[in-house]
Amino acid sequence: MGIVSPDIPLISNLDVLGNIALIREYHGNLPREAVEDQIRDLLRRFDLSAIAYRRIAVLSEKDRFVVMLLRAAMVMEAMILIDRPFRMLHDPRDYGFILTSLKKIDEWYKECHIFDYSWNEERYGGTDAPQDGT
Known about the structure:
alpha/beta; Rossmann fold
């Protein structure tokens, strides 16, 4: 499971490329060079090639979210869980950004689930939660 969550931060002393590559390096026992081209391609899809060697502290919240999403997608046969996205993206219109981001990498994951508080329901236009509160 690849998790995108405010409780699982990016590693501050690694650049963007290192944060994303870490998953394949660790779980796939691959050298960083083996996944760098794939990561650069993914960053290009978001027009973020320029941030590959930047540290996490200088990224915008949208850029940071994309990096977390790409890191989660690096898990083999990824099932992505996005936990409370509006703690990471504070603009209430960002649900469209989340969906667009997922579409850009749809071949990199099998499933994606978004978990959030019920009071954020209006940001999504509806939820799968039962209406009777159970």
